[in-house]
Amino acid sequence: MLLAAREKLDHAGMTSSLRTRAVHAGRDDLTDLGVHAAPLDLSTTYPSRDSAAEAARIDAFAAGAELDGPPIYGRVGNPTVERFERALAELEGFEHGVAFASGMAAVSACLLSAVAQGKRHVVAVRPLYGCSDHLLESGLLGTEVTWATPGAVAAALRPDTGLVFVETPANPTLAEADIAELARACGDVPLAVDNTFATPVLQRPGHHGGRMVLHSATKFLGGHGDVMGGIVACDAAEAARLRQIRFATGGVLHPLAGYLLLRGLSTLPLRVNAASATAATLVSRLGEHPAVTAVHYPRIGGPLVAFEVDGDPHALIGAVRLITPAVSLGSVDTLIQHPGSISHRIVDEGDRHGAGVSDQLIRMSVGLEDVEDLWADLEQALKAL
Ligand SMILES: *Cc1c(COP(=O)(O)O)cnc(C)c1O
């Protein structure tokens, strides 16, 4: 049933089909179960009278096997979380999804997977989310990074390269990379694409050769600013390694978070499309404002807008009244922040500037408010510059 639905998504490729699957993916069995909301299983342990049989299952789980039946222990897996994993995997067009406690736990697991295969070299394209940049630059997990422009990725590959890592559109400049071209440049090396900004509504990197598609589920997938999580959509072999790493390192998603994220998926296409339409209107108005020196908006659209101002960006952020002055993105309310001070503060100043993150840059994640109310707030706040 899951496969048939995925075929439909792949071949039809239409928003209506994605909208339908966003509502039903991970929930196809609910009617047969006689329930309407997905069951929330908060168990940390699962009783069994046959502990001899459990020994074999523990062996299988430790090697990364998929959940079959009760998970034995909460760190091995969770039925509610598994619904979210299946749903997001389907929306991204992959067989498997592996969920984590946060986006950074998902990024970490991808890096550890490369290291565990004896390939500690990573090629990455800037800009990346500040903490992803920091994790790679610091080498905290034993990786060694080579930063490359998309066109220089092929030349940067080494025999010990285990991963190529890219964000498109990138946080916070919204710079875009051609995923298909990058995938060709990668050859046999897996290409990991952080798809947090585009979501499967605007782009499915797996269709263009991305082998691992990551999300900070904290953002659009949850969509309401009240749940943290991360997920990787990938093939069976990679999913087994990621589960093995999650089992051993413990960065599991809480079942309640899994429940909220599954619920968030059902409105994902509506939220992303509505916010994108509002963002496009704000982009054209910002472009005409005399205090705005540049507006960055990706070709594929989306709810994120980046712009540079003439004057003190902190004055603008201090002056908004309807818009929420806060880091993060992808919520129902519009959020505005200064990457140089917050989301990308942890990146060395020279590297930050080199990646196009100027001190005048402001990042705004457009929410679901009325466009005229948002523009009125922006317009009055721009006077503070
Ligand atoms: C927020 C973010 C992350 C990190 O996710 P957390 O859930 O905060 O750990 C990774 N990548 C991108 C693009 C992000 O915006």
Automatic annotation (TrEMBL):
Gene3D superfamilies: Aspartate Aminotransferase, domain 1 (3.90.1150.10), Type I PLP-dependent aspartate aminotransferase-like (Major domain) (3.40.640.10). Keywords: Antibiotic biosynthesis, Pyridoxal phosphate. Its cofactor is pyridoxal 5'-phosphate. Transmembrane segments: none annotated. InterPro entries: Cys/Met-Metab_PyrdxlP-dep_enz (IPR000277), PyrdxlP-dep_Trfase (IPR015424), PyrdxlP-dep_Trfase_major (IPR015421), PyrdxlP-dep_Trfase_small (IPR015422). PANTHER family: CYSTATHIONINE GAMMA-LYASE-RELATED, TRANS-SULFURATION ENZYME FAMILY MEMBER. Belongs to the trans-sulfuration enzymes family. This is Cystathionine gamma-synthase.
